[in-house]
UniProtKB/TrEMBL annotation:
Residues 189-252, 268-292 are annotated as: Disordered. Residues 206-220 have a biased composition (Gly residues). SUPFAM superfamilies: Nucleotide cyclase (SSF55073). Residues 225-252 have a biased composition (Basic and acidic residues). InterPro entries: Nucleotide_cyclase. It comes from Streptomyces macrosporus. This is Guanylate cyclase domain-containing protein. It comes from the Bacteria.
């Protein structure tokens, strides 16, 4: 178990990260040991890369981890550089591996208590529920071959992700409802290097039959913001292509991405795979630059 940042039952506002390995139940004993070694190598390496050491609370969950970050840790650092570093380490570690390591990771911030045995609080419960949700598991089933899925709570998306920042791509997130036990919450899903996560077509809060589409029914403040961000992102990546009109289901557009990838926009549905582009956004400006 990692070092405790606060050894008190008094709740402190902290960022909670819940991580779980996909398909670990199918592994034998030696496979589980190799999986755990690779998981900790990737997770610890990502924490070291962003400079998080002292004050980090890290619990072992068998085929996963539960972490609470020191209160002074910038959440944008974790949603940006940490996620990017974890994704890269998983990709590199999976090269030539017969049993590729794939992880679901969830983030939520809120009051957290440490009782000497572990983490306690609704923030902990929600992070774990998002990570273990049916939507997250089914999305990873549809995203075969990708090493990482990130799920963040609605409040974390509004407060951190939507503001943008280094390695943060808010327009590539999609919202869906997560319902499990007493949890009924909106959450945002993201697969690094994919234009949109392949959410199941019957995802609660999503549009029926629109795989990987933007979830949510009517317009909302954060939804409209995500719409505008997605339009800006597609416009930047489209080269000389014309931006598609909204609410035009009979029109199909084909854009050529930077790097040679193709993006098809059919009505309000975006069809695209890996962009191969990492973007850096400046908070509040909507401006960004991409690099391979």
């Amino acid at each position: 178990m990692g070092e405790m940042g606060v050894n008190s039952t008094e709740a402190v506002h902290q960022l909670v990260i819940s991580g779980d390995v996909c398909g670990s139940g199918r592994l034998g004993m030696r496979g589980k040991l190799r999986m755990r070694e690779a998981m900790y190598e990737a997770v610890h390496g990502a924490f070291e890369r962003v400079g998080v050491r002292g004050g980090l609370h890290l619990e072992d969950r068998g085929d996963g981890v539960l972490a609470a970050l020191p209160p002074q840790t910038p959440p944008s650092l974790m949603a940006g550089l940490w996620v990017d570093e974890l994704h890269q380490r998983l990709r590199q570690g999976n090269e030539g591996r017969a049993e590729p390591l794939r992880m679901r990771v969830a983030m939520h911030a809120g009051p957290v208590s440490h009782d000497g045995r572990g983490l306690v609080g609704r923030a902990v419960d929600l992070a774990c529920r998002l990570c273990d949700s049916d939507v997250a598991k089914r999305t990873m089933e549809r995203a075969q071959g990708v090493p990482l899925l990130l799920v963040v709570s609605d409040s974390f998306y509004r407060d951190v992700v939507a503001e943008g920042g280094r390695y943060i791509e808010p327009e590539h997130y999609r919202r869906a409802r997560v319902t499990a036990k007493e949890t009924d919450e909106a959450a945002w899903f993201h697969v690094p290097r994919m234009s949109v996560p392949p959410l199941p077509p019957d995802t609660p809060g999503g549009r029926p039959g629109e795989a990987g589409g933007r979830a949510g029914g009517g317009p909302s403040a954060e939804g409209e913001g995500a719409d505008r961000g997605a339009d800006r992102g597609r416009s930047r990546e489209a080269g000389r292509g014309e931006r598609p009109e909204r609410n035009a289901p009979d029109v199909k557009y084909l854009f050529e991405h930077i790097g040679g990838d193709n993006l098809v926009v059919e009505g309000n549905t975006v069809h695209g795979g890996f962009t191969g582009i990492r973007k850096e956004y400046r908070a509040g400006t909507g401006e960004g630059s991409g690099d391979e």
